[in-house]
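Issue 218. Parser rejects a valid record. Input:
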Amino acid sequence: MVERYPTAIPPRALDYTGAIMPQLMPDEAELTAGLRIVPGRTYGFFTDTSLCIGCKACEVACKEWNALPAANLGLTGESYDNTAALSATTWRHVAFVEQISAGGARVTAMQPYQSNWLMMSDVCKHCERAGCLEACPTGSLFRTEFGTVVVQQDICNGCGYCVPACPFGVITTSEVDGKAHKCTLCYDRMKGGLEPACAKACPTDSIQFGELGELQGRAERRLATLHERGVANASLYGAPGTPGTTGGIGPLHAFFLLLDRPERYGLPVAPTLPSRRVRPAILAGLATMAGIALAAAATFMGEKK
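Output the parser choked on:
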């Protein structure tokens, strides 16, 4: 059985006299996700790709709630993947990775002429240390009271520094307004006590929303269950101590359970913050300049002789 959200409503609180306070009307998130969204706590997504059926309900829900236009209405030639990638107008992207055994090149248990699908609903990772946030010169990108990373378009000046600063290639600038856009983890819904639209719409609980620590524990238990069932290739990506958390990035607030190597899903195995590369690059540049200066001096002295 897949581990589901708890359904029990938290018990009624006691006031300072010890008397039971009146039961408050539960937030919608308590009914749909089993938790009350409280500012100051850290929330995120756990995406279990073993449960994804590629229905794209998350994509549709995201576009409907955030009023994002449709994109790539033509054929991409990439299987059933019509949106192709995350973009300024696609904040959830369901990747279809079709693996076909050709001449025994891949060691799989597939039958002849049968295909094997890997599906993953990709999204902004809302990193513990976000490269886009570090690179933003205007403060347009900020960390919310829920531990997520959001872009304020009214402050964004369209400089684009955040785009190459993202190790996962998530954030992009719009061709319409020239400003940066990406998933907000439904910041406006969370402020109103609502579960993010994509997680609420997911029919298989492939996308699970909750407090980050609880999600990480749930992911570890799910991984152990799959290993017991013989799914040896299953692994976590973005949870503490797993691929995706390297190079100073830290745990991802939107992390994944994968059924193959990260690169098969287009995820970097060892991402790193661009700021980690600044010092080595400066030192390399200084070394190059020193080498050129020494070579020039040696040439000048040789000609002088």
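Fixed in the parser; the record now loads. The chain has two domains: 40-98+115-272, 273-305.
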